[in-house]
Design goal:
heterodimer, A: 259 residues, alpha/beta, Rossmann fold, two-stranded antiparallel sheet, 7 helices, 13 strands, B: 393 residues, alpha+beta, Butyryl-Coa Dehydrogenase, subunit A, domain 1, Butyryl-CoA Dehydrogenase, subunit A, domain 2, Butyryl-CoA Dehydrogenase, subunit A, domain 3, 3 domains, four-stranded mixed beta sheet, four-stranded antiparallel beta sheet, 13 helices, 50% helix, globular
Chain lengths: 259, 393
């Protein structure tokens, strides 16, 4: 039994991310963090591998900056980490991501469950998760807020999915790809022992040749990054009794054609 | 005496991962609750320490045999710097009483059985401990303590009282300094592990303090408390010397956390002064404010490097007297600098800083302790002067 979880390093959500004069995205010297949504996926991978008596492997696609996320994952308790990197591979192209990721899952073999965080916090995308499921020919279960039952012998999984309108309970065949919500668990902190182990670990790097994968034609071209336009905001405090303030506010809103 | 050549900081990738982990822990497990703990004048240490113990945060420098991490001193430096982000100095103080004030002598001089029984659960966070040295009539003057532990067969019978004991209302055991023979001054004292569930022990009062509200402080009373002689740490009569040794680390961690807290406070003040406008421009546009804050950051950097030098001396296993000399300087400098930072930054916050809801007001109260606890500034000066051979010959 084997659980694979995907992660990536992203700028710290507290860092100020901006586009510099050359068009590059920068965030000063702030450290990267594990994509915050992935922390729930990593925790769930550890729990599921333990419950199923199997192994949990974490994979990141991209350059060396993603080693930080992989080491963090090992420090949390993941069994193995792999980085997929190749000059041909642009992980921001979701289809290329899914193609390489599917090849890696097939190479590992015997994988019952692939777990993602809900989305990537930096580029705000999740389509690679669906594409991976399609490439593997597996079921995609998104927005999972709870894993209710897993039967590795019968190859079935029962999950609770969370939507704005309510919750849905779904039973599916395994293997499957799931993306998880933050309600699913409380991610653990890396322990001292985990950090020591992670610090000593060597993370193998797989190329596309190692995976025997060839990428489809590029479907996405990133033309440019731009800073959002700055807004001139004027703050005006409205004085007076509450009734008086409310009346003045309505007048202002009518005047500005908001109402 | 010349400051030994010491290597600069040794923060490896692993130290930085540890930093991230402690920072995340502080952010999620401490900061959201710290206002409540300040209000209640106590923090749930059994719960907090268990979580920290499970992560291996409480025995960084202790042997793996007793559940420790066997790590280098730089992990303790990181722990001190990150716990200083707690938002109240009472929390790091409570933690460091457990890790570096009540346990070093036990770890170094205690018997194997004593360590298994008391050090291991302290490292796991299953027991809370406290250091019981100060008395109503003996604080910085450790040699003046009067609590007695009289031998009766295989037991000591303890009588006396201890004052200003951090973690005192919650501790499961105390590292107690008591007189085990009638000698005077430094002679005749021993360190003894005293479980707090024994007949005759009581918490006579929970004290109210100027600051560090989230940390409980107590007066403890001992009336014919009987403990096995095997609970004594190391040799009889060596208690004062073990305690002086134990103070070295206490003083360094106090200085490390203090200087880190001072730095966060100055940086927060810079942000506030950039946002706060007066007379049509941000406060920070005033050169006076810029220069004062730049001056403080310079002092902080100097103090931090002094602390790192002391950590390097400990890591290198340097001569104990040299460590004592530098650790005393670290604590002296940190305590004074914290007072200056608290006063200067509060002034720049103005009326807002005087309000209870503003973190600087809590810092102003909390910062005052470092110049008093663990040996007052004047004691540090005395130690430095003595080790520099200033006394008339």
């Amino acid at each position: 039994m084997h659980v694979v979880v995907f992660t990536r390093s992203t700028p710290d959500t507290a860092a100020k991310v901006e586009v510099d004069g050359s068009g590059a995205v920068i965030w000063g010297n702030a450290a990267t963090v594990v994509n915050p949504w992935d922390e729930y996926a990593l925790e769930e991978a550890i729990v599921q591998a333990k419950n199923g008596g199997g192994k949990a492997t974490v994979i990141a696609l991209g350059g060396e900056m993603h080693n930080d996320a992989l080491k963090h994952s090992l420090a949390m308790g993941l069994d193995e980490a792999i980085r997929i990197d190749d000059p041909e591979l642009d992980p921001t192209d979701s289809l290329a991501y899914a193609t390489a990721a599917a090849a890696a899952v097939n190479k590992i073999g015997d994988v019952d469950l692939v777990i993602f965080g809900k989305e990537s916090v930096d580029v705000g995308t999740d389509q690679h998760t669906y594409m991976l499921a399609r490439k593997l020919g597996w079921t995609m279960l998104s927005y999972v807020s709870k894993i209710l039952e897993v039967d590795y012998a019968a190859k079935t999984i029962k999950v609770e999915k969370m939507y704005e309108q309510g919750k849905q309970v779904v039973t599916s065949k395994l293997p499957a790809v799931i993306s998880v919500m933050k309600e699913i668990n409380e991610p653990r902190y890396p322990s001292f022992i985990g950090i020591r182990k992670a610090g000593k670990a060597t993370i193998p790097v797989w190329s596309l040749a190692d995976l025997g994968a060839s990428l489809p034609d590029k479907k996405v071209d990133v033309l440019a990054f731009n800073n959002p336009p700055t807004k001139d905001v004027v703050v005006e405090m409205i004085e007076g009794e509450p009734e008086e303030q409310a009346a003045k506010l309505v007048d202002k809103l009518l005047e500005e054609k908001v109402l | 005496m010349v400051l030994q050549a010491v290597p600069q900081t040794r923060f490896t990738e692993e130290h930085e991962m540890f930093r991230k982990s402690v920072r995340a822990f502080v952010e999620k497990e401490i900061r959201p609750y710290v206002d409540e703990w300040e209000e209640q004048e106590i923090a749930p240490l059994h719960d907090l320490f268990k979580k920290m113990g499970d992560l291996g945060f409480l025995g960084l420098n202790y042997p793996e045999e007793y559940g420790g991490a066997g790590a280098d001193i730089w992990y303790t430096v990181v722990l001190a710097e990150e716990l200083a982000r707690a938002g109240a100095a009472g929390i790091p103080m409570a933690v460091f009483v457990q890790t570096d004030m009540a346990t070093p002598a036990l770890a170094k001089h205690g018997s194997h059985e004593l360590k298994q029984k008391y050090l291991t659960p302290a490292i796991r966070g299953e027991m809370v401990c406290a250091i019981a040295v100060t008395e109503p009539n003996a604080g910085s003057d450790v040699a003046g303590i009067q609590t007695r532990a009289e031998r009766d067969g295989d037991e000591y019978v303890i009588n006396g009282s201890k004052m200003y004991i951090t973690n005192g209302t919650q501790a499961d055991w105390l590292c107690l300094l008591a007189r085990t023979s009638p000698g005077e001054g430094y002679q005749g004292m021993s360190l003894i592990i005293v479980p707090t569930n024994l007949p005759g022990f009581s918490v006579s009062k929970k004290l109210k303090k100027l600051g560090n509200h989230s940390s409980d402080t107590a007066v403890l009373s001992f009336e014919n408390v009987r403990v096995p002689v095997s609970n004594r740490i190391g040799e009889e009569g060596m208690g004062f010397y073990y305690q002086m040794e134990q103070f070295q680390v206490e003083r360094l961690v106090g200085a490390l956390g203090g200087v880190a807290g001072a730095e966060y406070t100055v940086r927060d003040t810079i942000k506030y002064c950039q946002e706060r406008k007066a007379f049509g421009k941000p406060l920070i546009a005033n050169q006076w404010i810029q220069f004062k804050l730049a001056e403080l950051l310079t002092e902080i950097e100097a103090a931090k490097q002094l602390n790192y030098s002391c950590a390097a001396l400990i890591e290198a296993g340097a001569d104990g007297m040299e460590i004592t000399r530098i650790a005393s300087m670290c604590k002296l400098k940190a305590g004074r600098l914290m007072r200056e930072v608290a006063d200067t930054c509060l002034q720049f916050y103005g009326g807002m800083g005087y309000m209870e809801e503003t973190p600087i007001s809590r810092y102003f109260r909390d910062a005052r302790l470092t110049s008093i606890g663990g040996g007052a500034d004047e004691i540090m000066l005395g130690i430095i002067a003595k080790l520099e051979n200033m006394n008339p010959r």
